[in-house]
UniProtKB/TrEMBL annotation:
Binding site for Zn(2+): H21, D24, H156
Name of the featured protein: 1D-myo-inositol 2-acetamido-2-deoxy-alpha-D-glucopyranoside deacetylase
Catalytic activity annotation: 1D-myo-inositol 2-acetamido-2-deoxy-alpha-D-glucopyranoside + H2O = 1D-myo-inositol 2-amino-2-deoxy-alpha-D-glucopyranoside + acetate
Family assignment from sequence similarity: Belongs to the MshB deacetylase family.
Keywords: Hydrolase, Metal-binding, Zinc
Keyword Metal-binding attributed: yes
Listed transmembrane segments: none
EC number: 3.5.1.103
Requisite cofactors: Zn(2+)
Amino acid sequence: MTAHPPPAAQPARRLLLVHAHPDDESINNGVTMAKYAAEGALVTLVTCTRGEEGEVIPPELAHLAPDRDDSLGPYRVDELAAAMDALGVTDHRFLGGPGRYRDSGMMGAPQNERPDCFWQAPLDEAAAHLVAVIREVGPQVLVTYDPNGGYGHPDHIQAHRVAMRGAELAARADFRPDLGGAHAIEKIYWNCNPRSVVEEGFARLRAAGRAFPGIATVDDVPGVLPDAEVTASVTGSAAHRAAKTAAMRAHYTQIAVDGPFFALSNDLGQPLFGTEHYQLVHGTPGAPAAGGREDDLFAGVGETVGTEERARIEEAAE
Ligand SMILES: [Zn+2]
């Protein structure tokens, strides 16, 4: 049911991603975003907070921290804009506008109790902001986290809840008709990582002996699943992988990149994945590629791609 078809000028394929903080999109979905943007699809990123409580890696920027200048949020807005330039993504927004919801900090931190933090936001109020975006853009595909937010961060859990609730409410004609006509998203995916791929990545990292003070473990990687539960894998071109690396580097306060590896503020190296993995949790899988997984998040989506977009898909594949 798509009550209001999006304007004719919209690309035929429209992908929406909902993330908690600036940097999550590049780490989880950088290749996917770069690939679909290059192919002419509309890629819309909704980030729920500005990441004000993130730990700052570069010493020269330590003053941005919440216990000093508390100016990390605006700084990360700029980092996100640079990352989107690297990925070729032009439609990025903050849920309810920049600064509407504050980063809640790690689970159990006193910041979880701040009334302005995302963790404290009433679900349907936060979801209504997403409903407006869904009805405006009309995405066929939504990507977000699993119910644990991948690794238990309150903002990631809340982003999952808002994404799922937003998708549900956007499809209901009786919910807030002032926010636009009902739109049902055809396919919903959760980010995940197949265990064998993660283990192989850590083996490469240990063999390479990279210059991080330590090495993370499989348990530090969000959303690790048995391989058989992974339903889609998106592999971009070398250019898309390079765009992901550049986007991660743009999140300079949060990520240190070293070749095919990276570290967050805990200084523990982990593999940077050039193939991104998903679990389809709503909708019908398209024809699986060899090996049984989808290789295209739009597989089976019931809308024809126009000739202009088709030409860009073929061009981008070369
Ligand atoms: Zn995050």
